[in-house]
Amino acid sequence: MLLTYLPTSIIEIIAFIISLISLSDKRVGWYKNFIWYLAIVVIIENFALAIVFYWHQPNNYWIFNIFQPIQIGFISWLMYKITKPFFNSKWLIVSLAVISLIIFIAENYNTGFRNYAKITKTYFAIFAVVEALLFYYYFLKQESNISITRYPPFWIITGIFFFYFVSITSNLFYDTLSAINKTKTKPIRYTIFLILNIILYGCWSYAFIWKKKTATSFTQ
Amino acid sequence: MEEKDSYIVYTVIVASCIFFIVALFIFFYIRLFIERKKRFAEEKINMQQAFSQMLLQSQIETQEETIAQLGKELHDNVGQLLSSTKMLLGITERAIDNPPETLLTAEETISKAINELRNLSKSLSKEWLQQFDLIENLQAEIIRLNSSKIINIHFSHPEKLVIDKDRQMILFRILQESIQNTLKHADAKNIFIDFLFTKNSLQIVFKDDGKGFDTAAKANGIGIMNIKHRIKLLNGSIEWLSSSTNGTIINIGLPLNKPSNEEGNHRIS
Lengths: 220, 269
Known about the structure:
Chain A has 220 residues and is mainly α.
């Protein structure tokens, strides 16, 4: 069973190492915060694995629920930082983040903190997709010619867009997929999330490498 | 129940695949849109550059014509009037036994004015431009600046430049502007100007040991834009490399054949 969950953890560790190598320079600016976020992701993921496989506890959802507000906060902040040069996104992003947190509190109040916050995940995924699409719209609308290959924010958003957009169906059918996984050990949802994590962290790692290149190429 | 589970599993897989394809489609659409936009912008820039090159060429031709006309007018008209005045002063001088000192000074001043006017009209004439020599003029400029002890310019050059006189003149203005920029902003002690010939081009390396400048921030400054315009007129290429420790290096490349309608390249690093 551990082998099913381990690849995601390895991908996150690789992304963390790439962020550490690429974003340690102070010239990368606010991108430096990715190191902290990915460090938290790696700790949470491995701690969650340890709860199940080392301490043999049946439920590790509470650790992901602790992480949920951090994820909402970081992704929303990221969206704000990236969309800011293109349009006035502040109030939209803050509103959607606040709505996500309200849903999260309400869901935990109703179902308990030890249950997976699937409704929050689904709504936040929809919000993130809307924000990503708005970014694409304003990105195409702007006058200047930006090469997407060398533009890290584009790849950050693309990773987020793929991850949250495709994950909507898995979150919607979470209960059934979870039951199938328990009874027939068919990790459909984990397989989908493994592919999405590869895309997300692949896009982010590519963005980190280009950020390092563009931030350190000026010799003044 | 099992059938329902399988149905849900297939639904999730198919839906995820559809979502993935949609996401992929959006991604490739954006890529394609940006590529087309870039191509369109490049074509627009090329057309604008070709147009401004033609405009610049005709501006310079008109300017040359006007200056040459002005020089001719000065020589033929004002020069003749001054010569007549000098002649009249000479007649008056000979008619008086003891001509006053002021009359002699006036005649001398008129003579000086005639000489200055001749030199000026000569320098404004097309013939002077046709005789323009970049190396000679740059050397004279360097001697003048070195004697001021503000800066020490080291100039390494071939004996003769095998490029058109009008192109030499434009190149002279580019180097003059670069020297002025170094003097004004770089706090440099030395400037090194090297002319190097390759098979098909002339490479000029202009280097100073000053404090450098932010090439990205100054990329659209008037001085740099002027230089870029002149380089474009020569169909050449130019790049600025600058750092706080190594000063500024300007690399200029000029094709040795006549400028065609192809675009010049500019790169700022």
